[in-house]
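Hallway conversation turned thread

IA: we were arguing at lunch whether anyone had actually written out Glycosyltransferase family 2 protein end to end. Turns out nobody had. So, for the record, here is the sequence (272 residues) and right after it the structure tokens. Reply here if something looks off.
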Amino acid sequence: MLFSILVAHYNNFEYFKDFYKSVLNQTYQNFEIIIVDDCSTDDSLQKIKSLTENNKAVKIYKNEINKGVGFTKRKCVELAKGEICGFIDPDDAVVSDALELSIQKYVDHPNIVATYSQIMLCDNLLTPQKIYSRTKRIKNGDQYFFNINNEVSHFFTFRRDFYFKTDGINEELIASEDFDLYLKLYEKGKFEFINSPLYYYRQHSSGVSQNKHRKKTVIESWNKVLFDTCVRRNIHQFGNIKASTDINLAKVLFERENTFRKKLNRYIRKKF
């Protein structure tokens, strides 16, 4: 199976070097690297071209104008050729057997549409700090699964043919585009959990999810994803609360999924 490593890039070269090294060191070598640059304003794209110029597996593209992460990631999938795809942010990295372990899941479970793993939280230098505690095995086929507790996250891989059975990543999203992808694919088939931290997530001040100035935008995008999911699944309300764009759906669903009873049930399942 050809694996397409998908990279949405913008103004990121210094961290890119760690990403690139982690990919080159993969035990599974049948891959391509699709990089789409969203009109970087520094010289990072040229540096990436120079660094990768002798690697035929690397294919670099550039948006005509700055379009945002939703558009850029959607374009990555459209340009890919692999049967299996997976996004890796250019400031992060993966362990050496990340591709191999992911591919093996598709071999062992031919009916699945996606895999995901645990995440290792790292500092600015990509030094491991701790495993992200919320990522865990989920129940497949649940109409009311919204990934509200971040159970599904990186390292996420998916069958490209099933991606095209959805309407694709919402190109208008400037945040939460990954959750948009997860929820759409969840509706198409089974996910398989890899109980090992395959993904190294770098925590740094310039990261989108850690930028306080963009927090409002992230919340708005997340609520958009949740509402669109409700529409697709023909869900109109939760208890006496109507699903709409006028409420904070993320807050409603978080409270619904984190009652004392549901927390206790999750704890029991985890222990026994």
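OS: looked through it. The chain has one domain: 3-204.
IA: good, adding that to the notes. The longest helix spans residues 215-232.
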